[in-house]
Amino acid sequence: MNRFTRRRRTRRIRLIVIGLFLALSAGSVWLTAETSSRFLRSDLETRVSAGLQVQAGILESHLEKFRVLAPVVARSTNAEAVALFIDEQVGKRVAAIAAGMAGAEEVWFLSSRGRPIASSLSDDLAVMADGNRMIDKAFAEAAQGQLGRQLLPGSPSRPPSYVFASPIRVENRLVGVLAVRVPLAPVEQAWALTKVPLAATDADGRILVSNRPDWRGRLISEVTSGNPLHIVRQLPVLGWEVHALADQSESLSQVWRAMLIAVLLCVILGGLLFMLAARWEAQAQRGRRQRAEALRLERKVLHRTAALRQANAQLQQEVQDRQRAEEHLRQAQAELVQAAKLATLGEMSASLSHEYNQPLAAIRSDADVAEMLIVRGRAGEAVGNLQRIGAMVDRMAEIARTLKGFTRKAGTDVRPVDFAQVAEEAALLLRPQVKRTETELVIRMPQEPIVVYGGKIRLEQVLVNLLSNAVDAARAARDASGQPPRVVLTVTADGPHALVTVDDTGAGVPENIRPQIFEPFFTTKETGAGLGLGLSIAYKIVHDFNGSLVLEDGPLGGARFSMRLPRSGGPWAAGKTEADQAPAA
Ligand code: ADP
């Protein structure tokens, strides 16, 4: 998945999650509002209806108290007398006592025709007659022998009252009516103590009693419109209804509060979710970045490994090439060594032919003498000649053998070699040259055998070269100074090494050419006399044997070539390098 697709997908998921969260939040807020309003409404309903019951009870019990007052007073003999004799004086007293004791607003007597007799309140009969007209319904009921009831409606400024009327009978004959006016103001005062608006209505729905004085006389439907919580209780005896109109504003504000809390909780939850999501997102991003980094590293490693492998292959190839080149070089060197040897031989050939010619001539003359002696019958005298011939042949054979060995191609192996033998054979090979140049060759060997580690023919080659150069230099010096040429070969044991020095009475090596004498093809000799290979090959051979070859100033006035070779058989045994051996000794 590429980055853009992933980003688009992430954005889509984020939108879906936000949408879901908003929907859920809205749902929870709605649920909170619904549940809380239902709960608060039912709670309010319970409270209000309980209050309504109490308040309705107050109204009922208030009226109930006065309901029995009228019949009780009407049946008394005093009342009968007042009605029978129209006795205003007694009537007024009885009415005042009854009203005062019961707490009625007014108690008054009426004749059977409905005319006023006496009242607890007023003496003015005209006013009373007005009042009587207002209670015609209650009077009519009482005249029929029932308990008359009638409401005297109030107005916003005047509280209503209720009238009970009871017949006064003498021997089953209606003689008058006793009316009791009950004030409803105490009920309204008791109702005024509750906050809930209360109203008692008649069958038509007109408000008779209320703790809101301005409602008196109005229709209940007018005041309840718009108020949703309206509880009604029937008062069957009175034929009334008591209404309670609950004030829902507090419940509503509580619902709003609950909703606000729900919204706040949603906001907090949303914030938390947002933070969590942001952290998840950051973590995922970090993980992705780490994975990408690991992948990049892996690729880098792979790349580097490939490069390394390639370099390795290249190196191997180079090593092979080098080995091959070394092999070629070794071959070339071997051939060069051989060439140098042959060159030395070439240089020595004149002396060698002299070496052979001299004994051949001696053999020839000895053979002639022996022949002559034998012919003359003096064979016994020929023995001496023959013995000399034999000795000379032996010598020539030895020279031939040494030469043959020297010309043989040198091997590459290294083994212990007795240096005395090397010196002896080199001297033998050089003898013709030494003799010809009348050089004195001195060889100083120690008593103990000096066994070095090397190849015999190659060591001989080195020594022949050094000695031959020394003889050449000594003879050349003799030509210049007249000093008899002398070459000294000294072999000594020097710790783990054998020290071989070749000194001559030559003129030495001039300072300016010293750095060059070990270079191949460097020679100061005239053309044909030297190839300039001798020292360079000698140097190479000695180093191959882990030895060293240096030029020094010799004690005889000429050059000194010092050669160190590792000795064999000691604690510095075979195969070790010069550097390894030196400190061990
Ligand atoms: P070549 O003998 O064919 O010249 P070398 O490599 O053997 O080649 O010698 C190189 C040169 O070193 C010689 O030409 C000579 O000048 C100088 N040299 C070698 N040995 C001696 C010596 N003992 N005394 C003086 N010079 C020497």
TrEMBL record:
Keyword hit for Transferase: yes
Catalytic activity: ATP + protein L-histidine = ADP + protein N-phospho-L-histidine
Origin superkingdom: Bacteria
Localization terms from the record: Cell membrane
Keyword list, A-Z: ATP-binding, Cell membrane, Coiled coil, Kinase, Membrane, Nucleotide-binding, Phosphoprotein, Transferase, Transmembrane, Transmembrane helix, Two-component regulatory system
EC number: 2.7.13.3
Ranges where the Histidine kinase domain occurs: 351-569
Leading EC class: transferase
Membrane topology: Multi-pass membrane protein
Principal place of residence: membrane
Transmembrane segments: 255-278
A GO MF term: kinase activity
Any Pfam family hit: HATPase_c
Coiled coil stretches, renumbered: 305-342
InterPro entries: HATPase_C_sf (IPR036890), HATPase_dom (IPR003594), His_kinase_dom (IPR005467), HisK_dim/P_dom (IPR003661), HisK_dim/P_sf (IPR036097), Sensor-like_sf (IPR029151), Sig_transdc_His_kin-like_C (IPR004358), Sig_transdc_His_kinase_DctB (IPR017055)
The protein, known as: histidine kinase
